[in-house]
Amino acid sequence: MDVVENRIGTGSATGAAQGSGSGGATGPEPVEPVEGVGDPRRALGGFLRARRARVAPEHVGLTGGGRRRVRGLRREELAQLAGISVDYYVRLEQGRATQPSPEVLDALARALGLDAAERGHLATLATPRRGPAPTARVSRPLLRVLDALDPLPAFATDHRLDVVAWNDLGAELIGGVADPDRRDRNQARYLFLDPGSRVVHPDWRERATEAVGQLRVSAGRYPDDAELAGLITDLSTRSDEFRRIWASGEVLMCGAGRKRLRHPVAGLLTLDFEALNVPAAPGELGLVVHVFSAEEGGEGAAGLARLAEVVRDMDVRDTAMRDTAMRDTAMRDTAGWDMEERPGLPVPS
C-alpha cells in the first residue's frame, strides 16, 4: 500500500479545500465580517449574547417578567446572577471591557450553565492569542500509525477541519475523501455545501453542529488565522444552516461516542469512535485522529467487514488499471523504438 501518496493528497489545507466535491460554486462575495471571527473583543461579546439567549429565565429561578422582546436572559438579569454590575457586563458585550478577571469569568460561566468546553472557550476569548496558528504537520510516524490501524477506519483533521491524512477504510467511510472529485476534503464545506453529505451522515444535524462547534473553538484560539476566518465567512455567506448554528454560540470538542454512517455498498454502519489528539505544540490545537471501531460479532463489525471488502475490490480494480496503463505505455515505447530502427516507416506519435 502506497502510504504517502494515498494519505497526504494535496499536502496542504489550501490545496485540500481546492479539491472540492461541492460543485465549485463560489457564491456571492461576503459583505461584512462574521461575529466571533477575527476580532477577539467582538467574539467575547458575541459569545456572551448567544449563550444568554439560550438560558430560559425560569430555569435559573427567575420569573418570566411579562412579554419579552428577546429570547433568554436580559443583560441585567445575567449581571445580577453573576454578581457584577450591569454597566460592566454591557461593556463586556460591547467589547469595551477587556481581560475580565478569572473570578468574573467563573461567575458568568456558572450563571450561563456552561460546560467544561464552553468554559475553556470563554477563557480563551478573554485572553486571546495573537499570531499565526502553529503548523501541525503530517509526520511519517503518524502515517504509519494510520496504516497500522487497518482494519479500523481512521483519518486525521486539522483545526480548520481539513482532512489531511487517512487510511483506505477511513477515506471510504466518509464519502471517498481520497478522491477530490468525489467530495471536498474540508469536513465543514462537505457537510454544508454538498448534499451528498446528508446521505453519508444520517444524523446530519448532529454532525453539522459538531463541525460548527469545533470551528468556533478554533476561531477563538486563533483569531489571526486568515484561512480559518475565510472558511467561516464563506460558509456563513453560502449556507443559511451554518449561519443559524454559528449564531447559537455552539462550542464542542472532539471526544468519543457512537456515529451512524451510510456507504452505498456496505450499507448503514453504526460505529464507536474515539478522537485522539496530536498537538502541534504544547497547549496548542493540532491534528485530531478519528478512529472507528465496532464490538466483535455485532452488526457494526459485519458492516466494517463489508466496507473492507469494498476497499479490497477497489484496490484490485486500481491495480488492474495501472497494470494495463503500464503495459500500453510499454507497447507504445517498443513500437516507437522498432520504427526508429527501420528507416522509411512512420514513427508513431
From TrEMBL:
Family annotation (CDD domains): HTH_XRE
Domain HTH cro/C1-type: 68-119
Positions of the UniProt region annotated as Disordered: 1-42
Biased composition (Low complexity): 27-42
GO molecular function annotations of the record: DNA binding
Leader sequence residues: none
Protein name stated in the entry: Transcriptional regulator
